[in-house]
Amino acid sequence: MAADNVIATYSRAPGETVLGGPYHITATLGPSAVLSNYAVTNAGADFTISARLATWTTNAASKIYGDSDPNPVTTGSGTNFVAADGVMATYSRSLGETVLGGPYHITATLAPSTLLSNYAITNAGGSFTINTRAATWATNPNSKAYGDNDPSPLTTGTGTNFVAADGITATYSRVPGETVLGGPYHIMATLAPVGVLPNYTITNTGGSFTINKAILTVTADNKTKVLNAANPPLTASYAGFKNGETLATSGVTGAPNLSTTATITSPIAAYTITASLGTLTAANYTFAFANGTLSIVYATTGICSGDAGHQILQPINANGSSVFNGKSTSPAKFRVCDANGASIGTPGVVASFGIYQIGTGTLPQVNEDIASTTPDTAFRWDPTAQQWIFNINNKSYPSNQTYYFQVKLNDGSSIFFNYGLR
Prior knowledge:
About 0% of the residues lie in helices and about 45% in strands.
């Protein structure tokens, strides 16, 4: 009845978790003195703890290709969690170590797990990115001489900051061209294996290939002239042309400077012919020089002061048929002339004289009847006859032999003759 003014106070079963509910609500009625007048239905009610809305935000993270993952992988923070629950996260990510395979999902695993049922949690995780690794491939410059084959390999190079396990290597090629002036030619480094290259930001500028001038050797041609003749024209030969070129097709222009100290009146000797650059030029060649020799010699043929020059004279037959008495002397005579036919008696004409061979036997009869004269010890100049003479003493030579003689002259030539003794 209203006059009893019945009221209730409420309490519930203890508990603070979602899964522990629902919790029973008990209604305690009063005043208790009037309650005996009633048959009260008082079943109580349910008390429900609903899950708390909360969010875990996982920060995005990254690393450079080839580096280890950061530890921890990333960080994060929670929103609207009960502080006393001390909710925290550990992080892991999807497997993968390449740039193109990413981004990789980061998973935040929250703890303590026994409290998580009390929350309706938004936990979307995050993204883990692998960024390209900065690396450099340095290609060494290289070169070759014009006309040579390219070196194999074309060049070499080195990589910096590549991951060793990737085994990055390079093959090299260059812009076509085979001339000195067309260069330098760019060298390209093609890196491999191609499958790992997207993981890098690569500085690969290549290198320079230079074609150096080939060496063309210019050699002064050796020349010979007869004593007191005009110097011959000086010429040169070329060696070292490439690609089948010749002087006419090589692009070489100009001429070398060729000179000698010898003059028309220079004495018997060997004179250097000096070769130098002169007006020579070439796009693909540089020049090296080799000297030659101008040899001034005696005339080897012709008439020399009225008789044959550069051979043995009478009474010794030039054909080797002379036979002398072994007790006699044999007058060996010869003349050598200059370009004007003048016999030369300058000291030193005869460099040496001697027997170079002895043959057994000779012609059967003495055919040279020479009165014995005073023997000489060396060739001497006879200014009257304008000839060189050596009275050879045969007494010390055994008879029935053929003797072969050589007169070495100071121009490098020789006069040979022979005769027999009976």
